[in-house]
């Protein structure tokens, strides 16, 4: 898929609606995510490598909140384990439709199943790898603990959860600094002050970030033996939780 340039918030909007993964976002999503999330390409590449390391024979690798299938494709390209399949799930019909087109050319490697559904409704089972790549932050806070517990129960012993999230910080100076640096990153990618401000308003109360300590505590409460950050670029991080 050739992505159009993200200019969804380039003009003043009289009323800024809540951010949704609709057809307009799908058309610009690859450009949007690369210019908005520091280190995104590095995270995607590493997901493929981690999946190859942890994938077990006759097991399932889940990409929950797969969007256009970048992490799914990275896993597909790296996994050589026999009889291992990938299940990619997203609740946006527009995302899933484009994801199917993007992955239709994926030859060889693990079998891929693409599902349009709420990831909270997916029965996780026989899993060696589960990926939540900037997905949990869009799930209501009240649902996160139970959801992660479901993932833990569905993971095989020795399984891995890869969790990427935008982070918040308890220290007010750190919080302000990390937000400022993220905005500077976006400006360096060509976004204007207006675009940054309007996008932030659209995401308010839709994307709810938490501290790493909150994530770590919740993951351990779900049963994971350990949970640590393996990558961080300003207020965006990716964590590994091991069963």
UniProtKB/TrEMBL annotation:
Keywords from the UniProt entry: Methyltransferase, S-adenosyl-L-methionine, Transferase
Function: Catalyzes the conversion of S-adenosyl-L-methionine (SAM) to carboxy-S-adenosyl-L-methionine (Cx-SAM).
Organism: Methylomonas denitrificans
Catalysis: reaction(s): prephenate + S-adenosyl-L-methionine = carboxy-S-adenosyl-L-methionine + 3-phenylpyruvate + H2O
Residues of the Methyltransferase domain: 63-159
A biological process term (GO) from this entry: methylation
InterPro entries tied to this protein: CmoA, Methyltransf_25, SAM-dependent_MTases_sf
Residues holding S-adenosyl-L-methionine: 40, 65-67, 118-119, 133, 200
SUPFAM superfamilies: S-adenosyl-L-methionine-dependent methyltransferases
Record GO terms (molecular function): carboxyl- or carbamoyltransferase activity; methyltransferase activity; S-adenosyl-L-methionine binding
Family recorded in the similarity comment: Belongs to the class I-like SAM-binding methyltransferase superfamily. Cx-SAM synthase family.
Record protein name field: Carboxy-S-adenosyl-L-methionine synthase
Keyword Methyltransferase carried by entry: yes
EC number(s) recorded for this UniProt protein: 2.1.3.-
Assembly and binders: Homodimer.
Gene3D superfamilies, per database record: Vaccinia Virus protein VP39
């Amino acid at each position: 898929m050739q992505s159009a340039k993200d200019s969804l918030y380039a003009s003043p909007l009289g009323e800024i609606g809540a951010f949704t993964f609709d057809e307009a976002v799908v058309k610009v999503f690859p450009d949007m995510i690369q210019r908005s999330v520091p280190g995104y390409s590095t995270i995607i590449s590493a997901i493929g490598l981690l999946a190859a390391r942890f994938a077990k024979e006759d097991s399932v690798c889940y990409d929950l909140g797969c969007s256009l299938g970048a992490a799914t494709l990275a896993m597909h390209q790296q996994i050589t384990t026999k009889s291992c399949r990938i299940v990619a799930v997203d609740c946006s019909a527009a995302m899933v439709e484009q994801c199917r087109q993007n992955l239709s050319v994926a030859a060889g490697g693990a079998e891929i199943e693409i599902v349009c559904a709420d990831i909270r409704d997916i029965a996780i089972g026989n899993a060696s790898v589960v990926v939540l790549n900037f997905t949990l932050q869009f799930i209501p806070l009240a649902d996160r603990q139970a959801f992660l517990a479901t993932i833990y129960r569905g993971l095989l012993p020795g399984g891995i959860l890869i969790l990427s999230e935008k982070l918040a910080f308890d220290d007010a100076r750190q919080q302000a600094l990390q937000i400022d640096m993220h905005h500077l990153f976006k400006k360096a990618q060509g976004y204007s002050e207006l675009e940054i401000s309007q996008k932030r308003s659209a995401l308010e109360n839709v994307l709810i970030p938490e501290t790493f300590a909150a994530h770590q505590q919740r993951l351990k409460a779900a049963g994971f033996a350990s949970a640590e950050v393996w990558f961080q670029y300003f207020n965006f991080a990716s964590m590994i939780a091991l069963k």
